TrEMBL record:
GO terms for cellular component: plasma membrane. Residues 1-21, 593-613 are annotated as: Disordered. Residues 250-558 form the Phosphatidylglycerol lysyltransferase C-terminal domain. InterPro entries: LPG_synthase_C, PG_lysyltransferase, tRNA-synt_2_TM. It is found in: Cell membrane. This is Lysyl-tRNA synthetase class 2. It comes from the Bacteria.
Length: 613
């Protein structure tokens, strides 16, 4: 999906004006109302669950109302409270649909507060919030997020589980009215029956059975109605590159791809793109958990970057997404912060090796040199070729091997991974392979193939590491062997520079181990080493350092410090370290997601370089 507007504004708007236009918008009313709705929702739920949750002096007046309203009001209070809790996050994000629903629900909540709790104050609070929503309705204009109908299944499971737990509380908070001593199994059965509108085995004295029955029925009806709504509402699929988008991006990379080693990764087909009005620059992104996550620098002419960045920020504002950029260069970070008023934080360093300067000679390269020589004496040979020079049958074997040798259940990579290997459109990519003819290769579906490295172009004279995969039964050091082979073959292929892995917080690790490092830096380094048990922070840095690279800093661009935890979670989801996806058995049955069909298994990501360490 691309967004292109007429009239190129790049260079025509002063920087100060841009910062005012794109800086953080006032969010006082949406945040206040969203938080207040959370509080009111909790009060409504408590009012519906606990019969003694009454504090006002309106008992006498309320008692003249029809008695049947008691159970109905309890169920209404419970339903309104749960829905307000669900809507509170959408209100904080300026969502229009959440605003519409809240305007309907708050008066209903006021009625239930008055009838069941006999609370004038509770009713006044709900109506006051409704007034604020109506008065500031222009603040709630954000468009819906990308979604699919599979969210209905998630809603059914999560809300159903919540209803089951809340139902057990409802059944158990009337100990003085219980008939007998029902077991936990009886109470659970009563909840399950009640959610479907039937009478269960638990009995109560007086009208309590009606109150419990209506409350459980309301929870069941709420689960059913919200699930049906999510299942039948129109889909808003996530943005994907169209063929026209990809063609335009490739044209920009042909002219300006030398500027950023991550530029080619913009061609991932699970990313969306916004172009500058002139079409001379573009920003690629993915929306994850309400975060509009761009990666690397904008693609194209630097002079047109402000126009693409402006469109990116417009799109984020229209949907109330949190804007963020992962892995931009220092130049890119300066443009982003100048044009938007966002802040930047150093994220880590990219390892870049100049092929002309690389050599295995010298004491510093002794360990790598010895490992490579040992592996070569073991009978391994290497081949470094462009994808265009590899036959289709061999490419098919490489794809299958790369998929089979993936070390994680989830496909990893976003900002520094292409997500495919050997595609017909990627003939200018590079593949390095290690081979050894032995007894196992005769029976292997991959023949003598033992390890694979995949590189994407970095302009016309560079290449950037995409993935590392190796047979777990192969000798250790396959990745080192292939990196050395790629660097040695680079001059023959017309390559002068090679981008290796990205090392997060590299400078902190390097400075923290030096003599004279302060206590704060040492504590920070210790925390990073601890986290390396799960995220390969230290091991990836040490693996990169073997090849004596120069380090190019990379930055994360964000709006406010309070957005950083959310951006971090979204980035880990995008990179595949955290997954909330459906189980693989269910995911295989998903309908088409709008992505163009690929003729290969997905590839992987640069972070697997640490497997060789």
């Amino acid at each position: 999906m691309s967004v292109t507007l007429d009239g190129d504004k790049s260079g025509s708007v002063p920087n100060s004006a841009r910062k005012f236009v794109h800086g953080p918008r006032p969010e006082t009313v949406p945040v206040l109302v969203g938080t207040a709705c959370t509080v009111v929702g909790l009060i409504d739920v408590a009012a519906g669950v606990f019969p003694r949750f009454r504090h006002s002096r309106m008992h006498t007046l309320a008692e003249v109302l029809p008695g049947a309203l008691g159970p109905f009001a309890a169920a209404l209070s419970l339903s309104v409270g749960v829905l307000l809790l669900l809507l509170a996050h959408g209100l904080k994000r300026h969502k229009r649909r959440a605003w519409r629903a809240a305007v309907v629900l708050l008066p209903a909540g006021a009625l239930s507060q008055f009838v069941y709790r006999h609370s004038v104050l509770g009713a006044v609070v709900s109506l006051t919030l409704c007034y604020l929503l109506v008065r500031h309705r222009s603040e709630f204009a954000a468009l819906p997020d990308p979604r699919s109908r599979w969210r209905a299944l998630a809603n059914f499971v999560l809300l159903g589980a919540g209803s089951l737990g809340l139902g057990l509380v409802i059944v158990s908070v009337h100990p003085g009215r219980l008939v007998g001593n029902p077991s936990i199994v009886d109470r659970l059965q009563h909840v399950l029956y009640g959610l479907f509108g039937f009478e269960g085995p638990v009995e109560y004295a007086g009208v309590t059975s009606w109150t419990v029955g209506y409350s459980l029925g309301a929870l069941g009806l709420l689960t059913a109605v919200t699930t049906i709504y999510l299942a039948f509402r129109p889909e808003h699929p996530a943005a994907r590159l169209t063929e026209d988008d990809e063609t335009r991006l490739r044209a920009l990379l042909d002219r300006h791809g030398r500027r950023d080693s991550l530029g080619h990764f913009a061609l991932r087909r699970d990313k969306g793109v916004v172009f500058s009005p002139s079409g001379k620059a573009a920003v690629c992104y993915r929306v994850v958990s309400g975060v509009m996550l761009a990666s690397g620098d904008p693609i194209g002419d630097v002079e047109a970057w402000p126009g693409a960045i402006e469109r990116f920020m417009d799109e984020a504002r229209a949907h109330a997404w949190t804007p963020a950029v992962m892995g931009c260069s220092e130049t890119g970070g300066e443009v982003w912060t100048r044009e938007t008023g966002l802040d930047a934080l150093e994220l880590g360093d990219e390892a870049v090796v100049d092929a002309a300067d690389f050599s295995l000679a010298g004491r510093a390269m002794r360990n790598v040199r010895q490992m490579v020589k040992r592996i070569e004496r073991g009978g391994y040979e290497t081949r470094v070729r462009r994808v265009a020079d590899i036959g289709e049958a061999e490419l098919a074997r490489i794809r299958r091997a790369a998929a089979e040798w993936r070390g994680t259940d989830n496909e990893r990579g976003f900002s520094m991974a292409l997500g495919r290997i050997g595609d017909g459109a990627d003939a200018d990519c590079f593949i390095a392979t290690a081979h050894k003819a032995d007894e196992q290769s005769a029976d292997s579906p991959y023949g003598d193939l033992k390890a694979v490295l995949h590189f994407v172009p970095w302009g016309t004279d560079g290449m950037s590491l995409d993935l590392m995969r190796r047979d777990r039964a192969a000798d250790p050091g396959m990745n080192e062997l292939l990196i050395v082979a790629s660097l040695q073959a680079a001059p023959r292929l017309g390559i002068t520079r090679v981008s290796l892995n990205f090392a997060m917080f590299r400078s902190a690790l390097a400075r923290g181990e030096k003599l004279g490092a302060g206590p704060v830096l040492r504590i920070w380094r210790g925390l990073l080493i601890f986290l390396s048990r799960w995220f390969q922070i230290e091991s990836l840095y040490k693996f990169n350092a073997k090849f004596r690279p120069r380090w190019e800093p990379r930055f994360v661009v964000y709006r406010t410090a309070r957005d950083l935890p959310r951006i971090s979670l979204a980035a880990m989801q995008a990179e595949g370290f955290v997954s909330f996806a459906l189980p693989r058995a269910l995911a295989r049955r998903l309908p088409g997601n709008g992505r163009r069909p690929c003729t290969h298994a997905p590839a992987g990501t640069r972070e697997h370089g640490a497997h060789a360490a």
